[in-house]
């Protein structure tokens, strides 16, 4: 299937639209010219992607490994023994007993849909930013993806 | 003797000559006819055939626009998420939208197809007649210019 017009491949298109940020290819200075759509998209994505970015960068840190392991065990316990876990949690946080499964499901649904909308809005706004698109096609900017350090030249 | 426009040769076989007439009458553009203007009948034919000749190109041009691709992919992801979390509700809504909004009654589709086909035939005929009535173009086609 043809890549979108102006992009050499689908890979290039997704690198451009899904990048966390951009830096100048020579000076490694962050790209600052963002339009309003990009800023709103970035803001809506922050609650999900900022922790993900932190996690990806610091995954080798032992404290992060311990925290991640604990979280995964808690999620597994919730999946297998939800009632027992909520009874224990309810003794510490009484309001937790008022949470119903449909509330959790709906909150998760809204979060996912909101994140997808934010990604779409940011991607669309980037494609409307002519200077950014021109810089991308001229290879004068580099993408920063999740997990990459902000200061590339210090890698 | 052959023309500089189409390579038509009056000494060639009948089917070949007939094919040349067909191409001359119905082809989208006649190459190398810069100084031979179109008459009104040919222009009417061009307008009628716009939907089958120009519109697919414009639709393709728009469909490959990265912004359109982005909107389409985002919509697809939203629908997929909706189906994942609430499949029964989503299918119910899609069924209503499909039945009420997207699918017209069969008689309307049939009538529209009939009108469109007749319009295409008339437009092709107008274009062909316009070109065959254009004496300058005909002379160039037959190589007598």
Structure description:
The complex is a heterodimer of chains A (155) and B (145). Chain A has 155 residues and is mainly α. Chain A is 63% helix and 5% strand. Chain A has six helices and two strands. Chain A has helices spanning 10-18, 36-57, 62-80, 82-92, 101-128, 130-137, and strands at residues 21-24, 141-144. Chain A has a two-stranded antiparallel ribbon with strand order 1-2. In chain A, helix 2 (36-57) packs across helix 5 and helix 3 (62-80) packs across helix 4 (82-92). Chain B is mainly α. Chain B has helices at 14-26, 40-48, 50-53, 55-63, 66-85, 87-102, 106-132, 135-141. The model of chain B has no long low-confidence stretch (mean pLDDT 86). Classes of the chains: A mainly alpha (155), B mainly alpha (145). Chains A and B meet through helix 5 of A and helix 5 of B.
- Helical residue percent band of chain B: over 70%
Q: Strand arrangement, largest sheet of chain A? A: 1-2
Query: Which regions of chain B have little confidence, pLDDT < 50, spanning 5+ residues?
Result: none
Biggest pleated-sheet summary of chain A: 2 strands, antiparallel
Q: Strand-and-helix sequence of chain B, N→C? A: HHHHHHHH
Please report the number of helical segments of chain A.
Answer: 6
SS strand fraction of chain A: 5-15%
Count of individual beta strands of chain A: 2
Structural class of chain B: mainly alpha
Largest interface: A-B, 20 and 16 residues
Shape of chain B: elongated
Average the pLDDT over all residues of chain B and give the rounded result.
Answer: 86
Fraction in helix of chain A: 55-70%
The main pleated sheet of chain B reads as: none
Q: Roughly how many Å apart are the termini of chain B?
A: 12 Å
Which structural category do the helix and sheet elements of chain A fall into? mainly alpha
Could you tell me the mean pLDDT of chain A? 89
Oligomer: heterodimer
Number of strands of chain B: 0
Radius of gyration of chain A: 20 Å
In one word, what is the shape of chain A?
elongated
